[in-house]
TrEMBL record:
Protein species of origin: Polaribacter butkevichii
Protein name: Co-chaperonin GroES
Pfam families: Cpn10
PANTHER family: 10 KDA HEAT SHOCK PROTEIN, CO-CHAPERONIN GROES
Residue ranges of coiled coil: none
Presence of keyword Cytoplasm: yes
Main location: cytoplasm
Lineage: Bacteria, Pseudomonadati, Bacteroidota, Flavobacteriia, Flavobacteriales
InterPro entries associated with the record: Chaperonin_GroES, Chaperonin_GroES_sf, Chaprnonin_Cpn10_CS, GroES-like_sf
Keyword terms: Chaperone, Cytoplasm
Subunit structure: Heptamer of 7 subunits arranged in a ring. Interacts with the chaperonin GroEL.
Subcellular localization: Cytoplasm
Gene (UniProt): groES
PROSITE patterns registered for this protein in UniProt: CHAPERONINS_CPN10
Amino acid sequence: MGLNIKPLADRVLVEPAPAETKTASGLIIPDNAKEKPQQGTVVAIGNGKVDEPLTVKIGDTVLYSKYGGTDLKLEGKDYLMMRESDILAII
């Protein structure tokens, strides 16, 4: 991926997974009712802190807190910049 951004310290850039467009039973969810996804793929990482190296790596699929991160739009795509502590799990 050709993103020209390097997060600092313990920050991680995540590309959110697309929001669900249908329910399990097949009903279509309108745009205004879609929930913000809580899963995404790590696309860039910082160097970590001196006493706390990062545990995630580029390409990891992660679960993150519902309101974690700052929304960014880079090269026409939506991303979230967050601290590694906002990531709940690697899946």
